Amino acid sequence: MNRTKEPSFRESVDMMYSRAVAVMDLPPGLEEKIKVCNATYTVRFGVRLRGQIQTFTGYRSVHSEHMEPVKGGIRYAMGVNQDEVEALAALMTYKCALVEAPFGGSKGGLCIDPRQYDEHELELITRRFAYELAKRDLIHPSQNVPAPDMGTGEREMAWIADQYRRMNTTDINAAACVTGKPINAGGIQGRTEATGRGVQYALREFFRHEEDKAKAGLTGTLEGKRVIVQGLGNVGYHAAKFLASEDGAIVTGIIERDGALVNPDGLDVDAVHAWIAKNGGVTGFPDAKHVSEGATVLEEECDILIPAALEGVINLTNADRVKAPLIIEAANGPITSGADDVLREKGVVIIPDMYANAGGVTVSYFEWVKNLSHIRFGRMGRRQEEARHELIVSELQRLSQNLGDAWTMTPDFKAKYLKGADELELVRSGLDDTMRKAYQDMREVWHSRDDVDDLRMASYIVAITKVAASYRAKGL
Ligand code: GLU
User: Which end of the chain has fewer surrounding CB within 10 Å, N or C?
Assistant: First the structure.
């Protein structure tokens, strides 16, 4: 294999796809049909800003409509291009299939550096972009449902939802046209941190399986594991924060645009996050060594490496120097196809993007269902559940009245047992279940087939099998 030339992001995804279908038994026509991106819409529009018209270029790519609506985020970044949105749309198809979110795959992007514009300007640009997409049904509750991605968040989603509503005043399901909205605009509890939470749940599930840990040469639990995270955006921040504060992992390195912070005793993730918000970068942060060539920290010793920023950061130029035995791809496509080969040969275990960052779209699915059902999860059942528990507890108390001290309840049992689940707890439970189930589906393929020796290939096989089944059912 030629190891000097790196393929494009889309070619890289296609190569990973082809590696998996090579061991599957798909009819050749279907193999090609699933792989190709159905359509990519490019739009150029002008917005009057600062006294003159500025032209922007945006995309919305639809990879597969085997299920509708199609789903996937909208990214704001200067590097956005057709190849990238098509690669990302393809990953959305496979990701949704893997976690059983009933969507096809789509992705959008706008070539823009959002930091160059103020809030009002961004609103004008976003509304205009949303208008261009909505008028072609590329934003629509039953056809195409965007969500946040790099450079966008709940603020942009609220503008998009409002724009769609203005254009579709009689659509009772208008709120379901986009997910990742703020709570007061039809959002759901737990969506903002969902992707980071999903990374945490994925790692917890991985660490439940001795055989899998052994493949990475790891033992024990997440407690005390050294973690290096690249990118302290929404995904990286939440993943690092939860792993450190809830699982006892030690974040020894944080890589950002202006360099990396390293501290073998552990970095305070919230303090670094606050520092970046205030100073625009990690430079000058006390309590850590600053490494100006940040990317070199990807090659530092650690137990778990979490690339949570851009695609292609681990590539043929650095893959052979990466020391982490376990990499979890919180970003989409952080490891190129060539680097994937190098790392696999070295025995590195990679928890692939398609699975690792699926927490976002999973909770998006819950939000979409909430919007369509027009009721918050838990609203009907919670108090009734509490009342039934109350009944049992008071009956137990009555029965044990005269039985002495051994029969008294532990002090906080009653309060804990009686509390019915609120929306956030239900979302977490649904996300945890989804991440566990999808991992188990992958590892089943990983361990049961001789021709599959990594999780990425297993993830593609699980996902493609599901997509193929739905094409077959449709008679295509
Ligand atoms: N942009 C996120 C992703 O890449 C979320 C997509 C969604 O929620 O639809 O998975």
Answer: N
